[in-house]
Here is the input.
Amino acid sequence: MNYTLTHKKLPVLELEIDEETSAITQIGEVFHAEHIPVGIETIEGRPVRSALNAWWMGRAIPASRSGLREALQLMNVSSTNLLLLKCFGLSLSDQYWINSHAKPLNWDNVNFFDNEFSEDVGNALFGHTTQGAELSLVSPDNTSDGWLKKKWIVDGAQRLLVKGGSNPYYQEPLNEVLASSILRRLGVPHAHYDLAWDKDRPLSVCADFITTSTELISAWHIYSTAKKPNNRSAYQHYLACCERLGIPNVQEGLDHMLTLDYLIVNSDRHFSNFGVVRNAESLEWLGPAPIFDSGTAMWHNSVAYRIHPNEDMPSKPFNTKHSVQIRHVSCFDWLDFSALQGIEEEYATLLDQSVFIDNDRRDVLCNALTRRLEMLEKLATRHR
Here is the structure.
């Protein structure tokens, strides 16, 4: 079937998509090469089909999503790739979508920023849909990333992302709120997270920080704009790509992110859960995205006796150990440790709300946070 890849209201290129697999089978005329998604390899202004396909399929819910098999059965859909066509590839993270030649649509009438959408897909992903019910599959949940259960909901003019946790402690939502509080205290741009509940299971809730005129470009797509030389580290390559594109304030944003990740022992800061924001119409780079998605931290799935804050902990994305990765931070002058006084007690209050966290685990985690804060302060003092 023939479609136009569209960037908000601007036609970018024509393409053919196999309705049975959602794969792009052919690329037609290119109208606005400058609006081809960032990081896609091009030859003489035309995208390489395999690269465009990787970007397109990468918009689908990942196969690793918790509870996905059951959700697909409830929705009577065989593959998450097929859900892409159901929602025209629309997302709440950027302004790209596909417009059918057979039944053309209007951006103003279909985008999820301005129009309400069904929560059927999100509810199915949380296992809340009654089997046999007729579901609406036009949803931004079809293009949501990550392995934890999550769904978008409409709250007046706001679009809120609700995200769950994982067995056995369901700790990730509590960690999101902790990270949000740390960043708020330090005055660092971030996505603000609140706590909600699904019966006795904690959920994190945050408002979409992307608007109808902006979009999130993942660090991976920035990183992919040039081939990394063998003699350049991943950190240096990412900075070089950002500098070549003219993205402002990147090193400052990385300083903030890597410092937070060291403090809370974030084990999963991969290239897809940080990035930059740009204006979707002018293509002006606005700077680093607010810090978001910090839940896989604080030994979220480790038993209490294996929580050792002094140990060198695994990290991503630039180095495999936090003790090495924290060396990339160029400046700690912005870091006001007095603003973090009482953060351990605040975390204890958070943990006390969950039936999955017993008192022993709470105490071990809070003591570990205290120790990490002490270690960070020593590092910052030596650096200065």
Q: What stands out?
A: The first helix runs from residue 49 to 57.
